[in-house]
């Protein structure tokens, strides 16, 4: 019986060892297959991401080589996380494009206003020059008028003096005539 038990125990140990060995072989095989699958998936995903990034980088190079043309966009056909990145970047460029268009329009309007202000300033300077000439002419006329008034005042004063002299002569003449009349009488 002991032999039978030993034999069964030996058989059980051999079966367990064989099962363990088979399980280890299966486990190693599963790990190797899993590693091969993971490496293959990594290569596929890496190439996919690398290809997507190369497509985006190529579009960015084309955009950067232009003369600041904000109408071009990144072209990307993928449907992954990079798609969202590309869409957000394209929206950003669109907003920049609109902002620059608004700035260009404002600059055009400011140029128009500056041109109008320059024209208005030239017109105002011409008018100021004309007014200065008119004021100078008026001042000269007023000075001539003052001289004429002074001359007339001088003539009037002289005439007044002559009138007073004539009045004195007339009074003296009248007194002499009256004196002569009285002498005759």
UniProtKB/TrEMBL annotation:
Chain coiled-coil ranges: none
Gene Ontology biological process: signal transduction
CDD domains in the cross-refs: HAMP (cd06225)
Membrane-spanning segments: 24-45
HAMP domain mapped to chain residues: 47-101
Claim: Membrane is one of the keywords in the record: yes
Any single Gene Ontology cellular-component annotation: membrane
Record has Coiled coil as a keyword: no
One Pfam family cited in the UniProt record for this chain: HAMP
Keyword terms of this UniProt record: Membrane, Transmembrane, Transmembrane helix
Name of the protein: Methyl-accepting chemotaxis protein
Source species: Marinobacter nauticus (Marinobacter hydrocarbonoclasticus)
């Amino acid at each position: 019986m002991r032999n039978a038990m030993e034999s069964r125990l030996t058989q059980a140990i051999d079966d367990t060892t064989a099962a363990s060995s088979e399980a280890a072989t299966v486990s190693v095989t599963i790990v190797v297959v899993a590693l091969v699958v993971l490496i293959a998936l990594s290569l596929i995903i890496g190439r996919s991401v690398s290809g997507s990034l190369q497509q985006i980088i190529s579009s960015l190079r084309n955009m950067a080589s232009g003369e600041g043309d904000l109408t071009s966009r990144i072209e990307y056909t993928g449907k992954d996380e990079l798609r969202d990145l590309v869409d957000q970047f394209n929206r950003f460029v669109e907003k920049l494009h609109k902002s620059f268009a608004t700035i260009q329009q404002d600059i055009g309007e400011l140029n128009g206003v500056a041109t109008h202000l320059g024209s208005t300033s030239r017109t105002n300077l011409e008018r100021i020059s004309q007014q200065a000439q008119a004021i100078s002419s008026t001042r000269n006329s007023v000075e001539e008028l003052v001289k004429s008034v002074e001359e007339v005042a001088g003539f009037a004063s002289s005439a007044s003096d002559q009138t007073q002299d004539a009045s004195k002569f007339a009074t003296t003449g009248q007194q002499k005539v009256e004196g002569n009349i009285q002498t005759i009488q």
